[in-house]
Design brief:
Shape: globular
Protein name: Penicillin-binding protein
Helix content: 55-70%
Distance between the termini: 36 Å
Organism: Denitrificimonas caeni
Largest sheet: none
Number of strands: 0
């Protein structure tokens, strides 16, 4: 997919991504044999965010600024 998302679709993806687990939290114990699929889904969403010039590491703070601690630098 090389086309950029429109602003509403990108905002929806950011919101959904902010509720996804972090990859480090996805274990076989928590997700069973499905854990690898969950990790693939997380990577797919990250790739689409990056293609749309969005840093996945910054999404949670953008969507939930009141719950995000201030930077220490």
């Amino acid at each position: 997919m090389s086309d950029k998302l429109n602003s509403d679709a990108l905002q929806a993806l950011k919101i959904a991504f902010s509720y996804m687990p972090n990859a480090i939290e996805v274990t076989k114990y928590e997700y069973g044999d499905h854990y690898q699929v969950v990790l693939q889904h997380i990577e797919t969403v990250k790739e689409i965010l990056l293609l749309n010039d969005v840093d996945p590491e910054e999404v949670y703070g953008e969507i939930n600024p009141e719950l995000t601690p201030n930077s220490s630098y």
